[in-house]
Amino acid sequence: METKIIFNGKTYTKVEDIPEEVRQAYQQALAQFADADRNGIPDILESRTRGNVIAIQQFVDQLQRP
Question: I need a surface site. Which of 1, 39, 44, 61 has the fewest CB within 10 A?
């Protein structure tokens, strides 16, 4: 299976193909999903403090609406 990385609307086959300035933003985005305890759940979703709000938003293509 071929690896495909899509970041900011552009497709790359490997991390090394991503331009350096874009790669930094890509790596910062990935860091948001770190899993320090390696339990398979990103730490940001396992917040152990109160008051944090996590929003997940789904975008629907305008063409798919009736």
Answer: 1
The helix (H) or strand (E) run that includes residue 11 is strand 10-12
**pLDDT tens, 37-52?**
889 888 888 766 555 5
Is pTM beyond 0.85? Reply is no
Instruction: Tokens for 40, please give them.
Output: 């398979």
Q: Are 22 and 12 in contact (CB under 8 A)?
A: no
Torsion, CA 15, CA 4, CA 54, CA 27, rounded to 10: 0
Tell me the chain's radius of gyration from C-alpha atoms.
16
